[in-house]
């Protein structure tokens, strides 16, 4: 094997590693810009007065818009979103479909603490009468790591791993809006802390700097090691 061929593979591995780390760094920068734009949009929308559900959903991007509306909850079809953390404690987000003048929409009532660590569900009661709701519009994001496996034996209150509107619509028997209302008024039965952006832009910038730093280090260490090995074989 010639010296050139013996160093090709190490250079290839080093080059691909550096490219991968740079790609991750650029991805973090893109996330930083997205979060900055999202925060600016949230600040602008939060400065406006609350809208009706019809006015809010008619906007091009109704996310984070404050709304006030009336509706009748279907308390029998309660959903409990699993693995929700608040101040280091495991719990559930409680959701239920609410019938409005625009049809059915999921409402997130807030977080409740898990009763224990044995996977038992908390006891929650929801009023099924006509109510006035105040909250903000959110849109659930699909988690590619989650696959619902309990659809064949779906019973209420239902424990879910993600808010899959399409699947829930089929189970519920009525079409649901693709948006979810996160309630924001105080309620002693729930903890309501609307946090649309969990990771701030500054953190993404820090991760980007780390990835670019690792890329530089990998290029320097790999290049030095390969060059040293080449000289020793000369």
Tell me what the structure shows.
The chain is of the alpha+beta class. It folds into two domains: 3-37 and 201-233; 65-183, no CATH class. It has helices at 3-46, 53-57, 165-172, 201-233, and strands spanning 66-73, 79-86, 89-100, 103-113, 131-138, 158-160, 176-183. A five-stranded mixed β-barrel has the order 1-3-4-7-5. The longest helix is centred in the N-terminal third of the chain and has 44 residues, at 3-46. It is elongated, with a radius of gyration of 25 Å. The mean pLDDT is 85.
Can I get a quick summary?
The chain is α+β, with helices and mostly antiparallel strands. It has helices at about 5-45, 55, 165-170, 200-234; strands at about 65-75, 80-85, 90-100, 105-115, 130-140, 160, 175-185.
Note the gap between the termini. 13 Å
Unreliable spans are: none
Tally the beta strands: 7
- Could you tell me the strand content as a percent range? 15-25%
Report mean pLDDT, rounded to a whole number.
85
Radius of gyration (CA) equals 25 Å
List the domain count as a whole number.
Answer: 2
Which percent range fits the helix content? Answer: 25-40%
Strand order of the largest sheet: 1-3-4-7-5
| Outline | elongated
Structural class: alpha+beta
Q: How would you sum up the major sheet?
A: 5 strands, mixed, barrel
How many distinct helices?
4
The ordered string of helix (H) and strand (E) elements is: HHEEEEEEHEH
């Amino acid at each position: 094997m010639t010296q050139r061929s013996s160093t090709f593979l190490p250079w290839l591995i080093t080059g691909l590693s550096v490219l991968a780390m740079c790609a991750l760094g650029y991805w973090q920068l893109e996330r930083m810009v997205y979060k900055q734009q999202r925060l600016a949009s949230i600040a602008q929308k939060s400065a406006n007065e609350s809208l009706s559900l019809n006015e809010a959903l008619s906007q091009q991007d109704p996310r984070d818009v404050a709304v006030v509306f009336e509706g009748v909850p279907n308390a029998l079809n309660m959903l409990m979103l699993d693995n929700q953390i608040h101040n280091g404690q495991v719990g559930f987000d409680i959701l239920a479909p609410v019938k409005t003048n625009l049809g059915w929409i999921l409402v997130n009532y807030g977080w409740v603490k898990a009763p224990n660590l044995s996977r038992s569900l908390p006891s929650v009661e929801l009023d099924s009468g006509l109510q006035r709701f105040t909250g903000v519009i959110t849109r659930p994001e699909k988690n590619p790591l989650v696959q619902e496996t309990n659809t064949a034996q779906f019973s209420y209150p239902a424990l879910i791993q993600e808010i899959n509107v399409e699947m829930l619509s089929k189970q519920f028997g009525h079409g649901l809006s693709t948006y979810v209302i996160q309630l924001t008024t105080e309620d002693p039965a729930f903890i309501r802390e609307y946090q649309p952006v969990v990771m701030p832009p500054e953190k993404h910038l820090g991760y980007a700097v780390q990835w670019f730093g690792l890329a530089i280090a990998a290029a320097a260490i790999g290049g030095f090691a390969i060059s040293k090995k080449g000289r020793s074989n000369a």
